[in-house]
Amino acid sequence: MHPALDVMPEDADADAALLEGIADWCLRYTPLIACDAPDGLLLDITGCAHLYGGEQALVADLTERLMRAGFAYRIAIAGTIGTAWAAAHYGKPAGYANGDERRILSPLPLAALRLEPSTVAALARVGLKRIGDIIDLPRSPLTARFGAGLLHQLDRARGHEHEPLRPRLPVAPYVAEQRFNEPIGREEDVLGTVKKLAARLAFALERRGDGARRLELTLFRTDGELRRLAAGTSRPLRDPAAIRALFAERLAALADALDPGFGFDMARLSVEVAEACSPEQIGIGNAEDCAEMDRLVDRLSARLGAHRVHRLVARDSHSPELTAVHVPAQAASDDGWAAFRRHRTQSELAPRPLRLLARPEPIEAVAEVPDGPPLRFKWRRAVHDVIAAEGPERIEGMWWSKSDEDSSFEQLARDYFRVEDKMGLRFWLFRAGLYRDFVPNVTKPPSWFVHGSFG
Known about the structure:
- By secondary structure, this protein is of the alpha+beta class.
- The protein has twelve helices and 14 strands.
């Protein structure tokens, strides 16, 4: 019928990606956006329209931007999701006031209630084709004949039943944004805006006793593209200068330029994660040193990536290789070294080497008596004669995970010795297994390992 019509295969993935991109672009109007696949978006503009001068001004701004981008569109505003969806798809798109749902819905077809096609066809067979045809009918016969879903959708559209909006992105607890009369593109202007927005957030954070642990800067380009930068902190933070420094590091770490295009016409700073931040006394304690360390951790994490900067956190285990674990330095957790010191003090443990081997390495050792310290051992092709030794310190194996088939040193009792050789090198050795449990031709004899070194 239309030989000049161009036809091409549908690309559902590309269409979904485009819809997601438009949803990101619409974040300038409200953070509460849901995708209504395959071709719709739901925006909750409650409390946001006044920023654009009212609902009609917001629609005018959105319309102008969609036209410049080359999109076909239908926009409707209503007090419920169901009415707005019905007006946009089947009615005359325009701005509608809350409470006008009956007048808007009555002339529309029943398909505007988002019913199943089979339900719409069944209603049409009995002469019910418009929403106005069923609004005043008795509810019990409708439910008995066409199911509860019909009146459920009608009540949602009329506002008699709440229909929740499920945002595609979590809503930040604290948000500050700035619109520009003239687009900006210089890095100094962006960082100055960050500091100004952080100062606004500081009042809200201080009022509630919170501090930011993770922030995100969203820059809206005039052509609809978005630029996002996220930064984490090692402790709750609300100092505008420190927040500006974080994003200065993030901008410096970008592999590509920020690429402002024709400029950014809006910036938004969001606190994605907030934690309690109690007031600090300044000038008497030594909190300044901790603050300097936190700033260093934040700068390194912003420049290198949070996953590349780690710290040690103590764990409740007697096995030396399990007493500490590496976690991101900005992770919300107790002070690992403080917990480690408390653990050592409470347990009255013998001194530990500062560094342990990634895995204990086997050695050949000679002892004067079976349960005594070694007199000589060979490690990595070098022979060490022992001139002093301390120990043993016995650490039992993990009995709760022992099995008859598993005879690895993790499951055996260990006797640790601190030894020093003729060269002044000090090692931490252990013997895995006890001679009292050794049965010739049945079990393996105890074996020696080096686990770390002192100094």
